[in-house]
Amino acid sequence: MRELINKSIGAAILISLGNYALLKLGNPIGPVIFALGLLGVCYMGQNLFTGKCGFLIEDKIKFRDLMIILLVNLVAGYLCGLVYSFADKEIVTNAVSKVATWDVSVSFFIRSVLCGVIMYIAVFLYRKGTSLGIIYGIPLFIFCGFQHCIANIITLGVARTFHWSIILAILGNFAGSLLMWYFSKDIKIEKKKRKAAK
Questions:
Q1: Which of 45, 62, 87, 156 is 20–30 Å from 54 (CA)?
Q2: What pTM does this model have?
Q3: Among the CATH numbers 2.60.40.10, 1.20.1080.10, 3.40.50.720, 3.40.718.10, which is that of 2-197?
Q4: CA-CA distance, 129 to 120, in Å (whole number)?
C-alpha cells in the first residue's frame, strides 16, 4: 500500500511539472515538453490513473487499487498546482483563463474519452518498446483540446478553484482507455496464438 501511494504521488509530481511547462510556455513548445511527464511516469514505473485504467483487466489490477491511484493522483496533483500558484503569478492567470473555457457538457466528455484513447495507445506502444506514442500522442491531445483529468486537477490547483468538469474528465478518460483496450484485445489474442503456434 505504501509503495502504491508513493508511486501515485510520484506520478502526480511528474505530470505537474509537464503541466507547469504547458501553462508557462503555451503552444507550440508547451505540449511537446509536457510529454516529459508521461515519459517519466513510464520509465520510472510510477502510478498514473490515465496510464493504468486501460490495463485494468489485462494486468488484473484491483479496482480498489485503481481508485487509490486516482485519489492520490488527484490530491497530490491539486496540491502541486497550489504550490506552483505561489511560485509564478503568470501561470495562475493562464490557469484561470483555461478553467474558464471548461464546461459540463457532452462535448467536454467526448474530448475526455478521446484523451483516454490516446493515453492507452501511448502506454501500449511504450510497453511494446517505443516512446513514439508518448512523444506524438501527448502533444496531439493537447493541441486538439482533449481533456486529461490529472492535468486538469493540477490546473485547478494552480487556479485555486474547483470545477465539476473534473468528474467528466475522469469518466471520459476511463471510458476511452477501456474502449481502446476492448477494440484491440482481439488483435493481442491473435498475436499470442501465432506465437504459440510457432
A1: 156
A2: 0.90
A3: 1.20.1080.10
A4: 14
